[in-house]
Amino acid sequence: MSANTVSPQIRVAIADDHPIVRAGVRGILSSDRSIQVVGEAEDGQSAIALIRKGGVDVLLLDLVMPGRAGLSLLRQVLDEAPELRVIVFTAYDPVSHKERALALGASGYVAKDSRPAEILDAIHQSMLRPVQKRVASNEGEPHTQLSLRQYDIFIRLVRGESVTDIAKDLHLSVKTVSTHKVTVQKRLGAQSVVDLVRYAVQHQLVNPDV
Predict the structure, then answer these.
(1) Cα(151)–Cα(157) distance, rounded to whole angstroms?
(2) By C-alpha distance, which of 177, 182, 149, 152 is closest to 163?
(3) CA distance 87 to 107
(4) What is the pLDDT of residues 88-131, one digit of tens each?
(5) Would you call 126 exposed, middle or buried from its count of C-beta atoms within 10 A (0-12, 13-18, 19+)?
(6) What's the per-residue H, E or C state across 24-89?
(7) Strands (DSSP E) along 58-187, which ranges?
(8) What is the pTM (predicted TM-score) of this model?
(9) pLDDT of residue 27
(10) What is the CA radius of gyration of the chain?
């Protein structure tokens, strides 16, 4: 090996369905000589196939992709590769999702509008910390099966936001939010928003004084 050859220390894979995002992240990572991009995936299925091949230390994972996505994808990735450091990399950034992702075992959570230095720092920090232990005690609970959008609407309803306000903030129609509300109530066995609040407090998803 020549004196000018640098041995990559951290092998990183990028899972995002937008080619321009992957190209941008690849460019950022290439500025750090201790990082090597070893693979890319454009959907959930290809992300799983990628990590099954091995040779990846850190996976930058977008939670919103075609096919298998969201926290169910994160669970499968961590089931398949328990020692993998997974950094959730997303434009969809409510605090409730960050908390869930970290509880499931993600090693970090970085918004897509973060500065390049923050992305690089998240990768390096993930390698300094031990792999996160997963919180599995409530993994089979109904709320863990909600999609990211459904969970976000659920928490917003619990915090007292109206369907109209939620629709405006998320740039959705009132009808769409109402449909999600009905689905959430059905999945959580709730008849009303009061029942949703009771469920959220019981499962420690919000503070009791919401």
Answers:
(1) 10
(2) 177
(3) 6
(4) 998 865 666 777 788 778 999 998 889 999 999 999 999 987 77
(5) buried
(6) HHHHHHHCCCCEEEEEEECCHHHHHHHHHCCCCCEEEECCCCCCCCHHHHHHHHHHHCCCCEEEEE
(7) 58-61, 85-90, 108-111
(8) 0.67
(9) 96
(10) 19
